[in-house]
Amino acid sequence: MVHTLPGRVARRRTARKEEIFSVALRLAEREGREGLGVHRLAEALDLTPGALYRYFPSKNHFLAELQAHVQERVLELFMERRADWDDGPLDALLGAADFYLSLEKTAPRYAILLGLLIGDPRRFQEDEGIARVAPSARALLAALEGLFAQAENAGVLASGDRREKTLAYWAALHGATHLMKLEKVEPGLRDNRYYGLRLARTLLAGWGAPRAALARAWGRRGR
Fold first, then answer.
1. Tally of CB atoms within 10 A around 155
2. What is the helix, strand, coil percentage profile of the chain, to 5?
3. Collapsed DSSP state (helix, strand, coil) of residue 189
4. Which of 56, 89, 150, 190 is 20 to 30 Å apart from 213, CA to CA?
């Protein structure tokens, strides 16, 4: 009798989940949240809905796993880009804003998925879902908070509650990513990046960024 090694089983399971995530992201891009339904996803994968539950015990668990997967990939991209924001702490903070606002072009499926799930006002109903999403969400926020710490230590932002700054900054940027939904009722809107970067600049100015230093950082990416 041939015995399958536990490691091989785990690798196959991981590969299968990666395939499911890939298909889910493609469906979300094409069909929105409707594409994330269990029956629609099973159909696209040529599986029965019951077969999906071998990998995810509930729909909420699946959505949490998918969100965590995307957040982990976005964090990897963030850390790769971090080296490019090398003209001081304010440049790094505006670079981080530009990175998030540009995801719709550089990683559109990730941007759409985050918009669908983070933009959903409903909270996770299962502690397991929260536990799965929280580590990567905290890691992303910690990376951004680290930039605020550097700015405060360099004296280009006033000292204060860094976590509050981090959450306010991210909330403003995430809100800006939804502005183009108003395009049909407000013709002539500029793109999300245009408004988001200006929100970021306004927040940094309000937190004490010196005018000359902020103007220099803005010159690298503002438009």
1. 12
2. 75, 0, 25
3. coil
4. 190
CATH superfamily of 60-221: Tetracycline Repressor, domain 2 (1.10.357.10)
Taking the domains of the chain in order of start, what are their residue ranges?
A: 1-55, 60-221
On whether the CB atoms of residues 157 and 151 are closer than 8 A, the answer is yes
Looking at the chain, the whole-number percentage of residues with pLDDT higher than 90 is 64
Cα–Cα dist 147/138, whole Å: 14
First to last CA, the chain: 67
Q: What is the CATH number of domain 1-55?
A: 1.10.10
Distances (CA, A) of 146 to 3, 101, 114, 149, 157: 48, 19, 22, 5, 13
- The pair phi, psi for residue 188, each rounded to 5°, is 90, 5
Output the pLDDT for position 23: 95
Q: What is the pLDDT of residue 4?
A: 52
Q: Which amino acid is at 134?
A: A
For tokens 């994968």, what's the residue?
45
Can you read off the two tokens belonging to residue 106?
A: 């550089």
Write the CA distances from 60 to 65, 66, 67, 100, 143, integer angstroms: 9, 10, 11, 25, 27
**Using CB atoms within 10 A of its CB, is residue 222 exposed (0-12), middle (13-18) or buried (19+)?**
middle
